[in-house]
Amino acid sequence: FKGGDTCEYLLSSGRFLGEKVWQPHSCMMHKYKNSEAKTCLIDKHIVFIGDSRIRQLFYSFIKLINPQVREEGSKHGNIPFEDKSASIKVDFLWYPEVNGSMRQRIKSWTEGSVAKPHIIVAGAATWSIKIHNGSNEALTQYKINITSIAPLLEKLAKSSDVYWVLQDPVYEDMLSESRKMITNEKIDAYNEAAVRILNSSSRNSKAKVKVFSVSKLIAQETIMKSADGLHLPESSRDTNAMILMNVYCNKIMKPIDGSCCQPQPPLTLIQKLAFCFFTLSIFGYLIINLIHRNNFRKNKSCTDLESGEEKKPAISTPNVSTLEMLLHSFCKLGLIMTYFYLCDRANLFMKENKFYTHSSFFIPIIYILVLGVFYTENTKETKVLNREQTDEWKGWMQLVILIYHISGASTFLPVYMHIRVLVAAYLFQTGYGHFSYFWIKGDFAVYRVCQVLFRLNFLVVVLCVVMDRPYQFYYFVPLVTVWFMIIYATLAIWPQIVQKKANGNCLWHLGLLLKLICLLTCIYFLSYSQGAFEKIFSFWPLSKCFELNGNVYEWWFRWKLDRYVVFHGMLFAFLYLALQKRQMISEGKGDPLFSSRVSNVLLFISIVSFLTYSVWASSCKNKTECNELHPSVSVVQILAFILIRNIPGYARSVYSSFFAWFGKISLELFICQYHIWLAADTKGILVLIPGYPMFNVLVSTFIFVCVAHEISQITNDLAQIVVPKDNSTLLKRLLCVAGFFSGLLLFSAMQEQSRH
Q: Who contacts 383 (Cβ-Cβ below 8 Å, separation ≥6)?
């Protein structure tokens, strides 16, 4: 890491990802929409002054504000543009040469009586080369003229943003006869003169003229596609305009995926308190550890001077106290959270935009599938969806989702639709797993609820504090948390119907089905009544958990997208356990689930259904329409996969330990990827080792997986301490947790007030 301002990198260096996607060095570029551009530039006056190339840049820039603009202005004259809705004025001033006329215009802005433009974009040289036939005298005069203009531009730079656009190379073979004297050698000489002279007298970094040299790099790759060898193709000048917008607007709009030119966000009060807490935990652990080591040394074996025999201490090893375990866990967590902060909040490591290619998604998928098959072992039990199998299922799905995120495959609709099924499958397992537990065990104790809620939410709550993000930002955890509470409420409210009670009287099965029908009715009503849904989750303090960007629409959208699949999981669990109880399925080792004939028919139907869904998902043309159908049809592929995986006895009796290992830490992997594998809150890619993409992915992945595994262990350790089995102790802990969240809400309100 060289340090310095990412704005300099944005203006001077980068490379193409593919043919059209420009990647600045070390930072991410945001793609501004018209509404965002208007918000950023409201009440601003922007001036482009120069030749025909600057005119091209002017048109590309104003099209970011209003895409309907046509290039109909005078080619050799001034062109005004105004957006009255946002009070934005953008002017192009025709000054094709750096001469006295251009100097006089720039000088007029430095005088007190004239309003200064907020942004000035200037540049010219090719006309001077053309008119004077590339003579050395013209270059000498250019140097004199730009020397006289430079102090004026530097004076303007104290209050305005001033950019000098260096001359792009030309494609000499395509130039007309009248432009043959414009050579790349001459252009380089003019650019060198401009760079050397500009800012030569300025010592104040804030008053510097920003040299826009990145256009040269873009032109080197694309000038061959030029219509006349001189002017850039439209895609290249659009890229230049977007860079210009990022340079000015990122510090104002602060887009998540626009890290270029964004200053490091200041620490909030809650973050400072978290830092103090983790620091005290580290020091506390070190002090206790030193005391224990010291005591252990005192108790070491020593020799009795009188008898010459060795005396053994009463205690040979110190017992690890609850306090020490607690401090040890917070000590490790503090170091891990420091890494999180450095990766995705401090401007320490580089971040890059994602770029999707089919090979970047499918090759890693094939690779991990081969690895998964290689690590095959026998299961301990051969029941449908046994523990090893569900861990394996979570594992391979999580790995596919991770590859989907880092490759930017969401832009490819067929892949997106299949990934939506994987997310739905996670929720299906939530419905299946929790229903099965409550139905079989009949355990509705507060301890069980607190254990599940703690394990689901601990990491996310810590990240909300450390990374200054709302709870809803990590949308999947709120989703599974709410669905767990819905499952619990459905089965726990009177009458409590469990398997033991239902075995005594079949009418209880009917009662449970009525409960499930009521749940389905509520889901259906809320999915088509956005107003009712938003009213429920807009009550304080629920609103603090489920609001994102000031409203709960995002939460409603996420909930609605997979609204039926948890119910499907519960219903599947009920039917499967009923069949199992009546011994209508065979779950012996190597035995097919049903009779050979029934198994073959079901297997054939499952394969056809699985492939039919894939064909439908691959033929999707519109994401909105497919998302509308997804909640109702995703269960088809999920059930098809379960039957394909479980009907053959040999398939049910083996599992991949490789995938199962990842499945055990799947939740931590899903959450940790936001900040220490991806970057800018999943919008980009973290770059620990610049210049070596494959090696960077290997190193960052290794650290990411180790951290996720460590956090999983920390969560398990803390769950035993924070959520004890003793009811009276648990009640005290719950009061402490309530106090913690009350304090968090108070400090959050103070932060909001200070921001406003």
A: 580, 587, 652
Cα distances (angstroms) measured from residue 224 to each of 189, 219, 231, 240, 519: 21, 9, 10, 17, 63
Identify the active-site residue in 74, 85, 101, 228.
Answer: 228
Burial label for 461, CB within 10 Å (0-12, 13-18, 19+), is middle
For residue 754, indicate whether it is catalytic. Answer: no
Mean pLDDT of 719-724: 93
The reply to whether 231 belongs to the active site is: yes
Look-up of token digits 């199962």: 660
Residue 52 annotated to the active site: yes
Q: Do 474 and 671 touch, CB atoms closer than 8 A?
A: yes
Closest CA to 56 of 83, 102, 94: 94
Adjacent-strand bridge partners of 123: 50
- Point out the catalytic residue in the list 13, 52, 159, 160: 52
Give per-residue pLDDT as tens, 559-602: 999 999 999 999 999 999 999 999 999 998 889 999 999 999 99
Cα torsion for 232, 238, 243, 246, to the nearest 10°? 170
Packing angle of the helix pair 446-466, 693-722 (nearest 10 deg): 140
| Contacts of 528 by beta carbon, 8 Å cutoff, 6+ apart | none
- Under 8 Å between Cβ of 69 and 241: no
The single residue of 25, 45, 231, 405 carrying the catalytic annotation is 231
Q: Is the peptide bond before 495 cis (omega within 30 degrees of 0)?
A: yes
Is the confidence at residue 496, as pLDDT, over 50?
yes
Helix (H, G, I), strand (E, B) or coil at 49: strand
